[in-house]
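User: My collaborator sent over this chain with a note saying "see what the structure looks like." That's all I know about it. Can you take a look?
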Amino acid sequence: MGANYSESKSRDAARKALHNLWVQEPEHIDLGIFTAESGLHVVEGGLDTADGRIVAGQAQRGFIRVRAGINNLGRRRFIVAHELGHFHLHKRQSYTDTHRELSTYRNGNIETEANVFAAELLMPEFLFKPRIEGSEPSHAMLQRLATDFSTSHLATIIQFITYTREPCALVVSKNAVVQWSRSSPAWEWPLLSGTVHRFSGAGEYFNSGNTPKLGMIETPAGAWIPQFSAGADETIREDAFAWPDQQVVLSLLWVDGEL
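Assistant: Without extra context I'll predict from the sequence alone. Here is the result:
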C-alpha cells in the first residue's frame, strides 16, 4: 500500500513544522515548542477510555489532553504529536483518540493522516533514513530506533516500511484475522487477507497463546503470499511481535534474497 495524496500532505505539513527549528538530532525535536507555537496547552488527565484529545477553536488556541497513567515516554510523545497532526491538518475541530485511532493506517482516513504527521514529525526522513541503511529488519532494531526517537513502536515500523530499500511488509492481525497491511516500495507480492495461516508466526501465536520470541525466523512464503503454496520450498522471514492485551500481532516480513 503506497503513500497516497493525504499521506504526502501529512508528511509535508510535518516537514514544514520542523523547517525553522534547526533539528540535527532526535533529541532536538521538542514537542513543547510545537505546542506553544500552535497556541496549544498540554494537560494530563480528564480522560477515562481515550488516550488523547484535542480541543481547538476558531482563535487558533486550545488544549491537548493525555490520559493520566501513560508512563511510556514514546507513547506519550506520539499521542501529543498525533493531536498536533489534527491541529495542523484538520484545524478548528475537536478529536478524541483511543488506541484504535492511534493505530490506524488506512488510506483516506483522517486518523491515518494524523499518525503519518506524527511519525514524520518525530522521525523526520533526513534523520531516520541514515539510521536504517544496511540494517537487517527486526523488531529489536525497530525498538531501539523507537527509543532513540522517543516514539511508539508501531509508528517506527510504519516509518521503516516507508523508507527502507528492503522488500519488507507489515501485516497486522487481530484474533487471528488480518486487519491491514503495508509494504515497502521494494515489496512485489500480494499479501494474505482473511484468517492468518497456521504456519505463520502470527498463526502459531493465535493457536498456542505463546508469545513469539523476537527475531526473524524462516516462514513458508505461502503462509503470507497467496501465490505460493504453504507446503512448498519457498520461504521468507517473519518477526512476529504480540500485543497480548489487544490480541494483536505485528508480523514484520522480509524477503531476504530471491523468491
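A starting point for your reply to your collaborator: The mean pLDDT is 91.
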